[in-house]
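User: Run a structure prediction on this.
Assistant: Running it now.
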Amino acid sequence: MNDAIRIRELSPDEVTSLIKDEKFNTLRPTFCSDCGQRTEFARRIFQIQGNAREEDKDLQSIISHYIKQRYECEHVFFKVWRSGYYVDAAVCNNCRSSKIVFDIELNENILEAISKLTNIPGAKIQQDIEKISSKLNASRTKKKDH
């Protein structure tokens, strides 16, 4: 039995193809922790091959450490897509940092999934999220003014 885990960085063409898929790209880079850049991130995606299970947190820690050491990617995110297991990372095109915050874009698919789980209409969920967001923004603005 072969228990070896192989990590392969995808080619630029493979990355481009993969991030075109909306479901894969729902969790995406949004903010550079070092310089504040909110756009222009180069994606680095690695395919995990072998006997790796997505629920194995110890293995994820080992893979994260390996990718940090070998490829200098500070923040990585594990994803299962179709029958593959991937690690997603990004680099800021402004300052070259790999300390990139990923976030989920709230689109129709996400709202629909939340709606199914909670039995609350998607429009109500979106309305509530917008209310919370505007309160958070108002609170941040008040703190900056003081």
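The mean pLDDT is 88.
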